[in-house]
Structures are given as structure tokens and as C-alpha cells.
Known about the structure:
The protein folds into 2 domains: 103 residues, Cytidine Deaminase, domain 2, CATH 3.40.140; 124 residues. The protein is built from 10 helices and 4 strands; from the N terminus they run αβαβαβααβααααα. Helix 2 links the parallel strand 1 and strand 2. The protein is elongated and about 110 Å long. It starts with a helix and ends in a 13-residue tail after the last helix. The C terminus is likely disordered. GO terms for molecular function: translation initiation factor activity. InterPro entries: eIF3h_C. Keywords: Initiation factor, Protein biosynthesis.
Amino acid sequence: MIKVLTAVNVVGNSVGWYQAIYFYEYLTADLIHDHYQYQSVIPNSVCIIYNPYSVEKGRLPFTAIRLTKSFMELYASGKFISKNIQKYSIKSSNIFEELPIKICNSALDHAYIYELTSSKLIDGVNLHDCLNTSNTPLICKLIDLISGTGGCIDEFSVEQEKYRTSQLASMKQKMELAKRIEYINTENEVRAKWGRELLPLPDMQLLSKIPEQSRLESLLITSRIDLYGREIANLAYSTYTNQSILSSFIKSDIGSTATDDSGTGEVAPSTEGNV
């Protein structure tokens, strides 16, 4: 695209990239790695997330994000261990920062909208159809992404188990090292009494160090759970609001219909004859 713009003498600069995904599946280690490469070279670069499902619901389908400064420093260190996460104050909510998007309509768009509102073109629109109260399938889908089989909770449990295993292995190595040092110290005390050569202590640098399990994936899973929960709350609030408005419309329609039927107050004459 930039080459095409340059061919027609239009200045085009790359300020980021975009990706089309559903919901909040952009919270992955691959996307973070790719955007880190962009943001390292262009500090003001952004990633535009396009959500096709938002178009179906009539919402803005674009989200502009970039990595926070503290997370950039953590990623540059290359060690996503608990100590570094606490050092840079990283939480699941401050991995990305969302930037505001401003969309400006052209003068023709404003003129068309004004013409619609001032004419009778929208008189035939059923307001009941404009109120979406069928968010139940989407809410069920989000709940399934959180707690379903292979969902976020299952993924988080797997990551926790990996972290627990690495911690147990590290503790086991430390205990074995402590026992070895205690044995050597005890043996050296005996050797010192008999005037024999002392045993050397083990070199700490030669010991195999078990690397601590990376906590990056756990942070991303926690962030997805948080965003899914917020989306469920927003959908539930939107559904409740639309249902309340729809109920008001229905009551007003029933009231106006009853007034039209009996608003004259006249009694129809009887068709039965007198005996």
C-alpha cells in the first residue's frame, strides 16, 4: 500500500500494522513480539485491531493499542519472572494501553444525516427492531471462552501447574545442595582433627540452574479473563437497558390503543328489539 501511495506522489509512512480477530484473541505472545519490533523502531507505532463481530452489532469495530512503557522495559529484559514483574509493576491490565480513535464524517455525510432526520424517510422504521435484546448467545459464547473446555481457566491451570513444577524442582536442588554443604562441613571438622586435607566446597557457579517458569502467558490469560468479564457486564447492561426501553414503548403503544378504542366515550346503540 505504501508503494502504491508513493507511486501517485502521496506521502505514506508506516506507523504500525493491523490485525483482524474476534473478541480479545489478540492477547498473545506472538502479537506482543511483533508489535515490540515495531514499537522499538517507531515509539509512536500502534496496532489497529479489527473485530468483525462488532460490525454486526453496530459498534465501532476498531481498537488502537500499543505496549506500555513499563512493559516495553520488561520485554527488553527478556525475563518474565515474578521478580521482574514486581519490579516493573506489571499487571494484567497494563500490558497494553488503548488509544482513542476519532472518526470524522465528511460534509456530504452530515448533509445526508440531516436530510434523513428532517424528512419522513425514517418514519416507517420500527423502533422495536432497533433495540437489540438478543445478546444471550454472545454472553454464552464469552462464558464458554472463560470456563469451557480448553478455555481461559483451563489454560491458566496448566500454566500454574508448570510454574509449581519448576518451583518444586528449584527447591529440591537447593535442598540437595544444602545437604551436600552440611556433609562437607561435618567431614572437614573430622579431617581437621586428624590433620588431613579438607574437602573443597562445591562451586555454586558450576551447579545447573533451573530457570524459573515464564509468567508472560499467565499474564495474558488473566488479561483475557478480565476483558471477557467486562464484555459480559457491558452486554448484560445493554440488554437490560434495551429491554427497559422496549417495555416502555410497549406500554405506551397499549395505552394509546386503549385511548383510541374508548376515547369518544359514546355507547353503541343496541340492536335488540323491545318485547
